[in-house]
Structures are given as structure tokens and as C-alpha cells.
């Protein structure tokens, strides 16, 4: 007797969340070369879903502090910002606050290395 095969369909359904909010203070200069971005004293990394939210986060970050966008990808939800350590931290905290308060996102704690 043949066994009936089951078919499983998996679907990616993004929630409203900021899954990574990290600051790298005084990174090794090789990181800038590998990332293809200008050298600064800190790199901030954010990962968001839905992925288009990275555009909103970039706008909030650049308005909140003196940071530059190192990388933005609306298809993966990745955002990299660069600037002074305090400015990058302020920018990420502003993004976290806005997304949580205004858009009701789940947010990630700010981590540092």
C-alpha cells in the first residue's frame, strides 16, 4: 500500500519588528573597506520587517542625529548608518522609539560592541 505524501507550504509573513539594533564603536578599519563605506567612529546596524521600513528608519535616523547612510536595502530590510558613537546611538534610539510609539512595532534593545 502506498503511503500518501503530504505537501507542506511555508510562507514568510513578516511582522512589524526591528530585529537588530546594534552599534559597533571604533570598528576595525577593514570593516569600512569590506562594506565600501566612509570611515567613521561608529557603525550602526538595523534589520527591519517589513523590509520597506528601512526607508522610514533611514529618514528618522538622519533627522535625529548627525549620521550618514552607509547602506540601505529595502528588499532585505537592512540599514547601516555611520557617524560618531553618540550620534549613531541617538539615531538608533530615535528609530526604536518612533517605530514602537507611532507604528506599534516590536523593537530590539540597543546592543553595542
UniProtKB/TrEMBL annotation:
The keyword Cell division does not apply. The keyword Iron-sulfur does not apply. It is found in: Bacterial microcompartment. SMART domains: BMC. Keywords: Bacterial microcompartment. InterPro entries: BMC_CP, BMC_dom, CcmK-like_sf, EutS/PduU/CutR. Residues 7-105 form the BMC circularly permuted domain. Its main location: other. GO terms for cellular component: bacterial microcompartment. This is Propanediol utilization protein. It comes from Paenibacillus tyrfis.
